[in-house]
Amino acid sequence: MSLIFSLALASLPALPEPVANNAVAKVIVQNQTYFLSFMGLGSDKQHSSVHNKVWALKVGDSQWQSKTGVPSSLPLKGRLASTAVGLGEYAYVFGGYTVAEDHTEVSSPDVYKYDVIKDTYTHLASMPVPVDDSVALSYKARYIYLISGWHNDGNVNLVQVYDTQNNTWQQASPFLGEPVFGQAAAISGNTIVICDGVKTQANPDSRRSFAGVAQCLKGTIDSTNPQKIDWRTLPHPTGTAHYRMAASSYNGNIYMMAGSNNPYNYSAIGYDGKPAPASDHVWRFSVDKNEWQVLSPAKVKSMDHRGLLEHKGVLYRVGGIDNNQQVSANVLSYKAEK
């Protein structure tokens, strides 16, 4: 790879406008790679800033293209905390939640398959239990796992498995960690690694509150039964929980980066009333060695991610919120170490 091409690849154009909490996916159609951004939060960070806008970048082009917005079975179209995953030439978009003017939040059951070339959506079987702020991981180019997440009024420990061949759902072995929302996860082969997120907790003299959970678990999917997962605890790389990190896998390693150590609402103000700081940390888990390594930090701090896109050994954060609690249009790159 030439240096010029390598530098061009590492630096991708910014989004047409700032967006955070956007679901992201990478698809490959006729050997051409596309990055996709679905829905999210605009720069005002108000309930009215939640949208269903979609942008696509044909990697190598100089700008993103606006696409048809994500449909919705709910009255409100825009959603936060949806999850997307690319599987071959299609992107699958799951859930998210709507925010009404009175701040009522509703988890969406919707599942759509998106075709970037035709710019069309196919409405698929709804999630049995609608979740948002979850994670979506693909396995064997067929199954997609939604692990834990928030359902209307609380976190669930469910692992819901969507079969893309049959358009059906099944339940897998429940998640054995603390049920959370805003967790980060990635899959390499049949190994899932999932870390952190936010739990709800009861209090003696006040209503429930939210708290970060410093936890990591490894799930090994049974080679003969995709619904069977052997969950085991892992040491945490730092002992400090982070919320809405970006995660992906590459070359037998699982990467987690950015996020915030202070859980927050979509305003980027923490549940404790303090502005949430963005992080620049990068963690790498070696599946073969079963160990963590803390890598050199990213150049730019960011948070409020729904995914991390890998392309040719470079990890990309698409949009998000910066360390000044401002919604960003930037596409930030980090070269994965061999």
Automatic annotation (TrEMBL):
**Signal peptide position in this chain?**
1-16
Keyword annotations for this protein, in alphabetical order, are: Signal
Q: Which Gene3D superfamilies match?
A: Kelch-type beta propeller (2.120.10.80)
Name of a matching Pfam family: Kelch_1
Q: What SUPFAM superfamilies has UniProt attached to this entry? A: Kelch motif
- The name under which this protein is listed is Galactose oxidase
Q: Could you tell me which species this protein originates from?
A: Pseudoalteromonas arctica
